[in-house]
Amino acid sequence: MPRYAGWALAYGAVLAVLLAALGATPFLLNAAAPGDLNWSRLSDIAQVYGALSLIISALALIGVVISIIFQAQQARAAQEDASWNSHRELVLKTIDDPLLAVCWEPPRCAETAQEWRQIAYVNLIVTHWDKAHRLGRVNREQMRSVALRHFEGELARRHWGASGREWMRLARQSGSRRTREFPIVMDEAYQVACQAGPATSPAYYFSPSTVS
Questions:
Q1: pLDDT reading at 153 higher than 90
Q2: What is the mean pLDDT of residues 167-195?
Q3: Does residue 203 surpass a pLDDT of 80?
Q4: Which of 84, 82, 72, 60 is CA-nearest to residue 1?
Q5: Which of 62, 64, 111, 136 has the most CB atoms at less than 10 Å from its CB?
């Protein structure tokens, strides 16, 4: 988003300078014109400036449209942030209080309360990546690299194995290319990781000496 804001400001500054220069041109010509100036020729020049003024006005209108689109994107991003923050708070509250887990939909596969909490947290991580990808903060190759490492873990595979199809189904309904692309990248990485070998169990993430 910041790069678009900078571009829009530069675009507006250039248009302002052009319009100011164009508006001042007739006055400058009149001040600098000698007494025997051919005003008929000057009139022809003025017509040319009129055409240029029309072009610049059209560019200014395009700038206004771009600005409106940019503001709409910012508003949409702000709404997504608010929605994401609300969802995250609900999940984190449930993770802190397992009794609230039954207020959500039943798990897709049999699991203990601890496993549910862990997979719920995995889903928060994946949702965060999805948002970063949609906003253009990470590209496809960067996301693929992160996902390949992610799916080395057992809980990551269990989460995607249970919910990956739902991610794909919802993404297909979106008009955003990046929204549709994210679960495809994740699923490709999931398949590659599964073919590469067994996942790492949580029990083997840390050596016994480092577990407090």
A1: yes
A2: 92
A3: yes
A4: 72
A5: 111
Whole-model pTM over 0.90: no
DSSP readout, the chain? Answer: -HHHHHHHHHHHHHHHHHHHHHHHHHHHHHHH--TT--HHHHHHHHHHHHHHHHHHHHHHHHHHHHHHHHHHHHHHHHHHHHHHHHHHHHHHHHHH-GGGGGGSPPPSS---HHHHHHHHHHHHHHHHHHHHHHTTSS-HHHHHHHHHHHTTBHHHHHHHHHHHHHHHHHHHT-S-HHHHHHHHHHHHHHHHHHHH-PPBPGGGSS-GGG--
Q: Look up residue 173 and give its two tokens.
A: 């309904």
Place of tokens 């840390």: 206
